[in-house]
Structure formats: C-alpha cells, structure tokens
Amino acid sequence: MFYSAMKLSVGGALKLTFRPWVEGLEHVPAEGPAILASNHLSFSDSFFLPAVLDRKVTFIAKQEYFTTPGVKGRLTAAFFKGVGQLPVDRSGSRGAGEAAIKAGIDVIKRGELFGIYPEGTRSPDGRLYRGKPGGLARVALATGAPVIPVAMIDTEKIQPPGKVMPKLMRPGIRIGKPLDFSRYHGMDGDRFILRSVTDEVMYEIMKLSGQEYVDVYATAAKRQLAEAETARKQAEKKQAEKEKDKHKSGA
C-alpha cells in the first residue's frame, strides 16, 4: 500500500515533470521473477526506471540511508522504503557483496523484479565500465531468473555533480529482450562462468545505450580520477608557493 502510494506520487511527479521516453516495455514480464540489469549514470536511475514500470522493482541501497537519526533521517528512510529500495548492511568480511546477493535471491524467490547495476557504482564520465562478476551473475545462476538488460539514457545530464537544481529534459530508458542463462544453472561457483555471463549482459547494455565501453572497473576509474585531481591540486599549491616566494625575494 505504502509503495503504491509513494510510486503514484513520486513516479507520477517524475513522469509529469521530465516526461521520460521508454522503449521495450513489452520485455518486462507482467508477472514472475526477473532481474533488471542496468547501466548506472545517475542517482535518479533507481527512480526513473520504477516510474515507467507497472510492477514494483527492488534495488539495494546503503543501510545508512535507513538508519540516520532525526526527523530528516526518518523521512529519508520512509522515502527509500516507499520507492522500493532495500537496505543492505555493508559490514562483515565481504561487505555489501554477499548481502546484496542474498537480498537479490530473496526478491527473486518472492516472484518479484530485482534491479541491479553490474558496474557496481555510477559511471564517473558517462562511459560504460566493466561489470562486476559477483552480484548479477550469482543471483541469475542461483535462481534461474531471466536477466533483462536496461539502458538509462541522459539521466546524468539532469543533475550533474555540483548542481543543486535539476535540468528539465527528457531522459530515456531502453529495455532489451530477456537473456536466458538457465544453461548455467547451479554453476554460480565457477568464476569463468560468472565472468562470461556478466560480459554478455554488459555487451547487451552497451548495444542499447550506445555508450563507449571501458574494460576496467568504474571504482578503479574513480580512484584514478581522484588521484589525478589530488596531484593537480598539489601541483597548483606548489606553484603558488613558488610564486609567493619569488615575489617575496624580489620585494
């Protein structure tokens, strides 16, 4: 009931304001379990995709979103629960990975739709990065559920990093045909099979999105960008200090 009310209010507002276009809705089954594997360009991806679907789709989210104290924390938790986000505890020896896999399997066993981002994090530059072979493939092979590739289009342009007010524009969503990996059922312990399944899904997402593919993990790319930015700031700081010393010596 709460989900329906939240979907009606939030989803309705998103569709009315941004008017997202969508292709391939017929590929999402009217009932029964399925995994929606999407590229990840923006925080808003987890809201735009459910907004255009008639069925509930459950994504995972950091547990911190659900446990922050205070009025703001309670409102945030209510919002995330209302739009189908599932809290995942990132503690433990293997962190969010095992928790996400268990959460995904539970969603599939209930006959529902499970949404996941194989890249593991948002793209730092709009390109499509290598999919992580854990969550997506393991849930698919453990449950036998079909994997439906999804491409979010232009969602990163609505609210770029550092911008408070979103830009009014039409994002897009392309939904591909379901992929059947039943031939690998029960082989979720084989890392080569996991890699093969993940790469096949990422290839379909690439065709749907038209993104340039980068064969490295997005987390590694973000780390490299952060290191480069730190090096740039340090170089600028050193240059400023040299200019300051030069000015003093010439005074």
UniProtKB/TrEMBL annotation:
Keyword Transferase listed: yes
Span list, region Disordered: 225-251
Molecular functions per Gene Ontology: acyltransferase activity
Keyword line: Acyltransferase, Transferase
Phospholipid/glycerol acyltransferase domain location: 34-155
Pfam family name, one: Acyltransferase
Protein name per UniProt: Lysophospholipid acyltransferase family protein
Lineage, opening ranks: Bacteria, Bacillati, Actinomycetota, Actinomycetes, Kitasatosporales
